[in-house]
Amino acid sequence: MDIKAATDSDYKYIVERDRHIAEALVKNKINEHEIFILWESNEEIGWMRFGYFWDNTPFMNMLWIDEEYRGQGHGKKVVLYWEELMRKKGFSSVMTSTQSDEEAQHFYRKLGYKDAGCLMQENAPLELIFTKNIV
């Protein structure tokens, strides 16, 4: 698997699949190198998108691996890649979240993420917040 920063040529792939971001923000995320595309045999198999919590802490907003490629270590590889990139940029910790009814919470804990709180939204499952020290 290869991990590459998204480019303008990935725009269509992203907006057709990532339903958790306003389409108007995608170009800016691409320009800021805040979306990575995962490739397997010259085919896009997923993406990872991040931003900054409180404008100062890297926050992984979205990690998606297509169903047929899950369970093969691709998610772990892209998360570790991102953490190393953030470490090189001088950050000492990163964050992410997932809903309490999603299996992803177990994935993040296996990667060393610690529960740091939660967010309650009306008519939605509890959003679990995770942090990880990367120094």
TrEMBL record:
**From which residue to which does the signal peptide run?**
none
Q: Which InterPro entries match?
A: Acyl_CoA_acyltransferase (IPR016181), GNAT_dom (IPR000182), N-acetyltransferase_domain (IPR052829)
- Domain named N-acetyltransferase: which ranges? 1-135
User: What's the name of the protein?
Assistant: N-acetyltransferase
Which organism does this record belong to? Paenibacillus woosongensis
